[in-house]
Structure formats: C-alpha cells, structure tokens
Description:
Order of helices and strands: EEHHHHHHHH
Number of helices: 8
Shape: globular
Structural class: mainly alpha
Amino acid sequence: MDISPDQIIYWEWGVVTLNATLVFSWVAMALLAGGAWLVTRSLTAGPHPSRWQNLLEVTVLNMMEQIEAAGLEQPRRYLPFVGTLFLFIVVSNVLDVVPGFYAPTASLTTPAALAVCVFIAVPVYGMMSKGPMGYFRNYIRPTPFMLPFNIIGELSRTLALAIRLFGNIMSGHLIVAILLSLAPLFFPVVMQAFGLLIGVIQAYVFAVLALVYIASGTRVQRQQDAAPTPASTS
Length: 234
C-alpha cells in the first residue's frame, strides 16, 4: 500500500522525479482552469443565466461573505488568493474518489507548499494594509523582547496548518485501506462518502485559518486608526 503519492513514480531522470503528487496537482489545476474558462466564456447579465454561472456566483458570494465575516474589509482584494486555496483543496480531495486519482494533499509536500503561500501572504497583505514599518512593528509589541516569540509563533502556525491538512487526508486513506482488507464491500463505500465530507471540511478549515492569519496581520492598523488621539480627547 502506498502511504503517500510521492512514492508513486511515473518518470525519473537523475534528480528530476515526476511523481503522482506533481501529476495530480497539475490535473487539479487544469480542471480548475478549464472549468473557469468554460463557465466565464458565456457570462451574461440577463435574467436567465446558466446553471454553471449561478453556481459560480453563489460560490463567489459565499466566499466574499466568509472573508467579511473574518473581519477583512475589501473582500475582493483577498478573494483570488483565499478562493484559489479553497477550490484547489476541495477539487484535490473530492477527486480522490475517482479510481486512479491520488489526492496531492495526501502528500506532506502539497500542504506544506500551501502553508508557505499563506506564510508569505500574511506579511504581503499586512504591508499592503499598513505599510512595511507598520506591519513589522507588530513583532516588537508590546515589548521588543517579544520579537523571537512572535517569529516562532508565525513559523509554528504555518507548520500546524500544513500538518493538520496532511494528517486528516492521510489518515482517511489509511482507514479506508484497513476497512477494505477487513470488509471489502460495505465499509469502504461508507468511508469514501465520509472522506468526501472530511475533504470539503478540511478545505474550508484551511481557507478560514488563512483568513484568520491574514486578518491578524491587517486588523491592528484599523484599530489604531479608530482609536481617538490625545488631541481629540482633550
């Protein structure tokens, strides 16, 4: 039994290896890009949009509502990044029920790469909102002695984000494999359905945590701006 799609090698030349993680990551990205092109090529503002356009609009509106619920203003600024994270993880997890498809999120490299993207996005959005000095000033609050602890906190939550997604997806694969060896007819079907639900939930949790981390890097400035100055209170 292959625990990770990294162990499935399709082509290898020297240090260059093409494994299932890379292949099915590209498959998921191609499906997302192709589906987006097919839906958006016939968009209409009329009273009778297509079903796919309705689905796209509902998905986008729900994502924007979640972004606003996380306390982020201007949700359109964050929608491309957070929406892409969510859709990629959902498609990767859901397609795992297709025979021959290996979810790239079952490899630690994929959740780690996504977590690194979040790790980079937090300061980028923070500096866009507050400027470089305003963002990095958070690392020395309330005292400069907090700098190493704040840095460790940033790194540890990035690691936890990757491990959480990888652990849940991999454990689901292992449970299905064990039940398949014990009861090859009924239990695997139930666990596959349960795995679909878990996959969608994990995509939602990953995207929401990314929103929370981004909001934590942008919210302080708004609180300071809203706070009254000494001159205004006198």
